[in-house]
DNA sequence: GGTAGAGGGGATAAATTTAGCCCTATGCCA
DNA sequence: TGGCATAGGGCTAAATTTATCCCCTCTACC
């Protein structure tokens, strides 16, 4: 297995939090689970940009970090459900804030991000969590 | 210059925000500037884990993304001061929340992070922003 | 002349993260 | 029998991000 060669810095809270949220899909995963989408296959459908492999890996990390809990039903085909732990829930205000901030400033951000010469092409089809109406949420 | 090969996804706010905050030191940089540490050399001293090069690059990205403004004084030796833009300030509640969340759950997080087999060694000496007393802050 | 301070930035190597494939297992359906 | 769905996870190759080194500018100081 891969091992870090550079020491992890974890003095200020910022770095600790970053470590937990570090991963292309982690915030989106937490968000999805909080909104009631708990099965891996459902989450995968909601995040068309992600591979099954990546979701699987990042879900595992979130679990190891204690943000989510996994319940495996001994069935076939297998059934697994994730849910937020208490500390995982405590992250939600932050995830929401990140999400809202991005949406609030979308026009501006899209503009400046496009100006970045490193950015050549863009996708705007991925996460469809917005389309979950409040009625579909299963919070708690 | 390096160009992205994988299309950037920017549908939900989460991804947009992530793009802006993406960088090992970006949240810390914004935090430092918000607290009144505006010159690159001062920031560098506060973040012993970072190289001059990295800070320089990430500051530039933050500037290109419109989060901070750079004022160059035509002096010698050169003098540069960064400050948050309006949209940059609007990120501060989030940065603060990230910071506080990490500090609040420090004990727990340090434990679970250490259990990660990838993590071999750790540093706890870096950012010293906590040591800035309120009196030293120059907000606004 | 050599050194230090302040800032910028090119080039390249190393580290780390994602993407892509493949294989496991079982029951259901055509 | 072949294909699909569901979930895990090994392994390798790309992609992306950080770390390192080095050079440049100009001035003051020893």
Automatic annotation (TrEMBL), chains A, B:
**Which PROSITE patterns does UniProt cross-reference here?**
HTH_HXLR
Q: List the protein's name.
A: Transcriptional regulator, HxlR family
Work out whether the entry's keyword set contains Acetylation. Answer: no
UniProt keywords (A-Z) are: DNA-binding, Transcription, Transcription regulation
Q: Which GO terms describe its molecular function?
A: DNA binding
The protein's superkingdom reads Bacteria
Q: Which organism is it from?
A: Hymenobacter mucosus
Q: Show the PANTHER family listed in the entry.
A: TRANSCRIPTIONAL REGULATOR, TRANSCRIPTIONAL REGULATOR, MARR FAMILY
Q: Does the keyword Magnesium apply?
A: no
Query: InterPro entries attached here?
Result: HTH_HxlR (IPR002577), WH-like_DNA-bd_sf (IPR036388), WH_DNA-bd_sf (IPR036390)
Provide the HTH hxlR-type domain boundaries. 12-110
């Amino acid at each position: 297995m891969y091992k870090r060669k550079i020491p992890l810095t974890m003095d200020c809270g910022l770095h600790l939090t970053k470590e937990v949220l570090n991963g292309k899909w982690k915030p989106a995963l937490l968000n999805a689970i909080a909104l009631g989408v708990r099965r891996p296959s459902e989450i995968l459908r909601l995040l068309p940009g992600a591979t099954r492999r990546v979701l699987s890996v990042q879900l595992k990390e979130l679990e190891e970090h204690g943000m989510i809990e996994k319940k495996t039903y001994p069935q076939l085909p297998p059934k697994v459900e994730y849910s937020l732990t208490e500390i995982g829930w405590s992250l939600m205000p932050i995830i929401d804030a990140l999400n809202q901030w991005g949406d609030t400033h979308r026009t501006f951000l899209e503009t400046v991000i496009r100006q970045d010469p490193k950015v050549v092409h863009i996708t705007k089809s991925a996460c469809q969590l917005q389309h979950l109406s409040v009625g579909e949420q299963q919070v708690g």
